[in-house]
Structure formats: C-alpha cells, structure tokens
Amino acid sequence: MQKLYSEFIGMPVFSEYSSSPLALIKDAIIDPENGKLLALLVKNNHIIVPMDIERSTTSAIFIADNDRILPVDDVLRVKMVLSRHISIPSAKVITEKNHEYLGRVTDFEIDTTHMVLANIHVAKQFLFLHFNERIIDFKHIVRIEKHSVIVKEQAVMSKAKVAVGESAFAG
User: Fold this and answer.
1) pTM for this entry
2) 3-state secondary structure of 132
3) Which parts of the chain are beta strand (E)?
4) Which of 91, 149, 139, 144 lies closest to 119 in space, CA to CA?
5) Could you read off the pLDDT of 108-145 as tens digits, one per residue?
6) Which residues pair with 116 in a beta bridge?
C-alpha cells in the first residue's frame, strides 16, 4: 500500500489504549542515500521509528505506548539526516545530464509495506497553478540533495501525457 506524504502530515498518533492522540505527525524523515523512511517526526524533536508502528489506518497511526516516541538524538542516523537539512517537499527536480528543470516536488508516496520512498510527484508551478505534472518512480532518482532531487533522463521520457488543465494525480 502506498500513502502520500501530504496524508501523513497532521495524522494523529495513538497508543492502543489511549482515547486521545499522543502526538501529531509533522514530517517524514527519508534517508537520502536509499529512500528508506527513517522516522516520523512528531512533537518537539521527537520521532517514531517505523518498527515501532503497530498498525496504521487511513486516518491514524497506532504505537504500543508513549515510550515509543523517542528523542531525535536517540537514533544516530535520523540525527545525521536532519543535520543535513534535506527536505524532499518543494525540492527542485533536475535531470542528471542535461540539468533540465522538471519542476518541484509537490508530494511523494511512501510504500507503507516496505517503508520506502515509492515515487515523487513533480510539477512546474506558477502562483498556485500546477502544470507539466508527472510522477517519477524512485528507480529514476539518482540522488537527493539539500535543495534538489536529481533524476535520470528516462524520467522525462516516461512522462505521462497530461492535457492542459488536467491533473496527472487524479483518480
């Protein structure tokens, strides 16, 4: 199953026995080296690592108890990735060889079975309008840098044909 980043943000986190949320998800921390979901960032520099997620629904995430919410400093790889200030949402997307600007990341999908980045949603933007929308599979990503995502040239060639005014992400 795949879930959009935008659907994770603001999602409540419950323990199996709580009636009120323990936290709300603020961000998803993706390892830029391999695309793995390292953690979900919640309140005040605290995280939930994927192995501590008991189950998830379309509207909430469940963990065993409050002790599963860890300080960022407790997980070295998460701390290292956060210190690099790499953010996938709104990053520029550029081809590797020709340095062609494809747009910015408008959203991305996480494969919730394997907890990895599945693909990125890219569009050129003007004010609030999106055009040249496309979905780029993770296999076409060469590397993720501080302010950009570098993709293979094949990502451009595999672009879905989208008529002006239509969305590639509909349905």
Assistant:
1) 0.84
2) strand
3) 2-4, 12-15, 23-24, 27-30, 37-41, 46-48, 53-56, 61-63, 70-71, 92-95, 101-111, 116-126, 129-137, 141-144, 148-151
4) 139
5) 999 999 999 999 999 998 887 777 889 999 999 999 99
6) 36, 111
Token digits for 103?
């747009």
The half-sphere exposure of 19 on its side-chain side, counting CA atoms within 13 A, is: 0
**Higher confidence at residue 167 or residue 27?**
27
What's the sign of the alpha-carbon dihedral 15, 48, 54, 118? positive
Q: Report d(CA 32, CA 18) in Å as an integer.
A: 34
Cα→Cα distances 3→24, 59, 114, 129, Å: 16, 11, 12, 23
Question: Tell me: the pLDDT tens digits for 150-168?
Answer: 999 877 765 444 433 444 4
Give me the chain's average pLDDT, please.
88
Terminal CA-to-CA distance of the chain, rounded, Å? Answer: 16
Backbone dihedral angles phi then psi of residue 53, each to the nearest 5 degrees: -80, 115
